[in-house]
Amino acid sequence: MPFVRTAWLAQMTKKTTIIPIGPYHPLQEEPEFFKLHVEGEKVVRLDIELGYNHRGIEKLSELKTFEQTVFLVERICGICSTSHPLACVQAVEDAGEVVVPERAQYIRTVIGELERLHSHMLWLGLAGHFLGFNTVWMWAWRYREPILELLELITGNRNHYGMMKPGGVRRDIKVEDLPAIRKTLADLKGPICLFRDAVTDDPLIHARLQGVGTLTKQQAIDYCAVGPTARASGVARDVRKDHPHLAYGRVDWKVITRENGDVFDKAVVRILEALESIKIIEQCVEALKTLPGPVDSNPREIKAGEGIGTYEAPRGEVFHYIRSDGGNRPVRHKVRAPSFMNVATNQTTVIGQSVADATIILAAVDPCYCCTERMAAIDAGAGRRVWSSAELIRLSQAKTAQLKKEMGVEGPRLGL
Amino acid sequence: MSFAVNMLTRSLNVFHLGGSACNNCDIEIIDTLTPRYDLERFGITLVGSVRHADVLLVTGVFNKKSAIRLKRAYREAAKPVLVIAVGNCPCTGNMFQQSYNWDEPVDKYIPVDAYLPGCPPKPEAMILAVVKLVKKLRGLTLPKA
Amino acid sequence: MKAKHMTRDELLERVKGGLGDKILRWTEKSARRIYVEVKPEDIPEATRFLFKELEARFSIATGMDTPAAIEVLYHWAFDQFGLMFTVRTKLNRDQPVIESIAPIFKGAEWIEREMWELLGITFRNHPDMRHLLLTDDWPKDKYPLRRDYVKA
What ipTM was estimated for this complex? Predict the structure, then answer.
């Protein structure tokens, strides 16, 4: 994860200029996740190496009970922390034909959408950092904090909320906590709308991101891409609309799609989705004011069989498959995160692009951070490493600075 | 100059190395840099190279692939260097102990100076850990909890 | 008629018609979950039919070691009906071999690599078969998702 010295703090106190420092490894033979082969400044090939995060979770799940495994899958990814549990419990419920109470469905939706909100904001902040728009980065981290505090209020934890279980949710959302949810969302709406307007119309951002890292509609289909990565390319797939579940079929909201499939469109999809998330949560909160009932149907056994659960994580469809033999542990638990499909699209979106754009293109599918951290560019002819992670980020930021100068513009004004 | 004296005269350089992780600890570490928690007021600076590090912050479980990175990074670090295991994962392996892709907790192959359990530990806990360590190095006594 | 203009019943009729006697078993677990079993050698044609002609979305594939066989389940989605349509096939445990579907579309490349290294399934004619997640020096013939796998 690239760290930037608290640049904006320094900026606010007018002490020093921004010096991004990121992790890079001094060892030449260090294996990278993303190895970009470059000729001059153009990327001609991408090698992707996975496995740095592989912890054998599917096999570990066979040692856990159906309730325990939810805590295991929660830790697949910290920022998709509730998405995996949501797909997992639905797979178990599908296998065991378990009914979930209506109040639980609304609570599940609130937690899932709050996660989408703070995940998209994290991504926007990261994108801002990679591109050298530090006001964007400041904005994201500032407005993300209240959402984490809200999650701590209603679930007990800022991350890894432990809310899901087969049959429902582990704890109710108290009626007296609903106003806090409403207030946090109300305080967020204005800044997100401002951000949307500042960014989507900004000529510098257009110049920097439009036409960059394009994934065509056909390519998105060929790679079986999901989530904003697919929707930005005009492929209108969203588990929340297509496979109605939880409370998504009971509230009013729309699927966001764009047509061009470039980094700009991927960013716009996420910003507009954040606003849809607020809309969804507000309606759920309204329902939760009066919706009675248990939040857990307390299933005592999961009958033998197989089940599939899917959920639209911030990154796209999460897929879980469970096979049960009537015991209390899964006999097989297949997990497929959205990034498994989306990261592969990088193999086509960086080719022919400038190495200064590589960072943002790879980040545009919103993978786990450890993936984007481990980038390097290699001279295609000599095979030597030319640019490290930190250097690639600096290249990206420098390109923005250059454009800024050429165009004589400032970049998005966020009123901070 | 001795390591201890260095601690008194300048800030601590911290290098962060993430293993096979869910990244929650990593995100919370960044959160400690935000004005709300502001780790830098304790004299902490994040550095980009392990060679310049006084402290190695380690997060995540280290599977067969990422353990190699950690061993190399530790070798590269100028000694002495303090190692803080942040989160349950590097401390014990957390819930991944029986994984076919994991061998042993971090302290079996590099010395660990501080263990900060949690999943993830909250930013307040991280700051407390760093403060405790710094105070210990500077020879100051801590009040009884 | 293109798949996207069909009703759910028309689509399922078209699926049954297209797969024909390749279908060994057809199970409708619920309105949104259908499981179909075919022979391994029928997988490539079934895949082409579902992906190219009916424009189904490939969600992922699951490999599984069972006492009777090594199963491969191809999970397809007909998003327009919220339907998950799984095609199951059973491979011989002693020599699990099947034709790769990666030549048909790119989205299948990585999962076949994963199923090879974790279960020991051979995917014939895969364009780029090599380790995906495990180290390159992972002991040969040691497949972590097999039931008899013992951690070294």
Answer: 0.97
